[in-house]
Amino acid sequence: MLNKILKDAKTIAIGGHIRPDGDCVGSCMGLYQYIRDNYKDRKADVYLEDIPESLKCLPAVDMIRHEIPADERYDLFISLDCGDKERLGFSGALFDTAGRTYCIDHHISNLGFAQEDYIVPDASSTSELVYNLLEDEKISLDTATALYLGIVHDTGVFQYSCATPSTFRAAARLLEKGVDGPKLIQDTFYEKTYAQNQILGRALLESILFMDKTCIASYVTKKTMDFYGVGVKDMDGIVSQLRLTKGVEVAIFMYEVETNVYKVSLRSKDRIDVCKIARYFGGGGHRKAAGLTMAGTYRDVINNLSERIEAQMENPQGR
Ligand code: AMP
Ligand code: MN
Ligand code: MN
Which of 24, 34, 121, 218 has its Cβ near the most Cβ atoms within 10 Å? Predict the structure, then answer.
């Protein structure tokens, strides 16, 4: 229960991973609003990098802090949806100075970097875990909206295998608070800008199949991103579309963050544990969805990744 996590903390900082996604923003804002609604004598603040435009329809996102005020220090730091300390980014400085630290997360690669934690690798989302910690009757519409959004995003609108009966039960309770599910799904998950659709089309056109058509890969360079006027926050969903290709086991999508440095997203349909591959190269995530950053040319990156994928295909029990 949340009471036990907060204990007597009067000031609470909430932080999530760099390049925040739906679950990260949803879990942070859900917890933030619940504390604001139900613990009026406490001070809570959310620290996140700039969030995707499509998520700015969530209540109270204008309260998110993007930098740390001088000399700010908290009794408690709660890390949400973040698998390791480095991925907290700028808010890591508050983690270091906090009186206590607590982590709520579902990344299988999370080795428990906070003093105490609630880590459930099988959970659909951090937002579902946050829901589990709250008293149902004290959840407001704004809290419910944020948590519902988080669950929707990390389950691919309830499609992935991580969406279990308990996920649906949590989502049903949140809907009963009055959440406009269809609108939230349409506006934050499916809707794309024209430029986002163009870069998706470009990535699909340039994709290649390899390893007997069991892998698909595509990439975009910084130059291409500039040409279409898109940034890193516009790349969501491209790797999921690649993964849908018939016959494919693993999808790889990468975009250049600086010259010959790529942010890589890996998705698996079933057999391959892409988290293992990401961890091998210093990244992390989940069994079927993982990420990492790699240096080298597009070809180097694909060659290095294929070696690990091939090894797993040949020896599914090993790495
Ligand atoms: P992405 O491909 O960025 O959508 O990430 C897929 C999943 O892996 C998400 O749950 C991320 O939080 C996680 N992830 C992405 N990159 C990293 C990384 N470098 N280290 C650890 N986890 C990551
Ligand atoms: Mn996330
Ligand atoms: Mn998540």
Answer: 24
Last residue of a domain, one of 157, 190, 223: 190
Does the predicted TM-score (pTM) go above 0.90? yes
Question: Probe ligand 1: pick from 18, 87, 275, max atoms within 8 Å of CB?
Answer: 87
Residue ID of nearest Cα to ligand 1 atom 18? 283
Q: Is the CB of 15 under 6 A from ligand 1?
A: no
Domain residue limits at 98: 2-190
Report the run of H or E that residue 46 belongs to, with start and end.
Answer: strand 43-47
Q: Of all helices (H) and strands (E), which one includes residue 103?
A: strand 100-105
Q: How many CA atoms lie within 13 A of 48 on its CB side?
A: 30
Query: Which of 153, 162, 292 for a ligand 1 pocket mutation test, highest count of atoms within 8 Å of Cβ?
Result: 292
Instruction: Per-residue pLDDT tens, the chain, 319 aa: give them.
Output: 999 999 999 999 999 999 999 999 999 999 999 999 999 999 999 999 999 999 999 999 999 999 999 999 999 999 999 999 999 999 999 999 999 999 999 999 999 999 999 999 999 999 999 999 999 999 999 999 999 999 999 999 999 999 999 999 999 999 999 999 999 999 999 999 999 999 999 999 999 999 999 999 999 999 999 999 999 999 999 999 999 999 999 999 999 999 999 999 999 999 999 999 999 999 999 999 999 999 999 999 999 999 999 999 988 765 4
- For residues 25 and 163, state if they share a domain: yes
CATH number at residue 240: 3.10.310.30
Q: Is 110 in the pocket of ligand 1 (CB under 6 A)?
A: no
Bridge-partner residues for 262, per DSSP? 256, 294
> Strand order in 250-258's β-sheet?
208-210, 215-220, 250-258, 261-268, 289-295, 284-285
Nearest atom (ligand 1) to Cα of 292: 19
User: 238 with 277, same domain?
Assistant: yes
Judgement on whether residues 211 and 124 belong to the same structural domain of the protein? no
Residue 135 Cα to ligand 2 midpoint, Å, equals 24
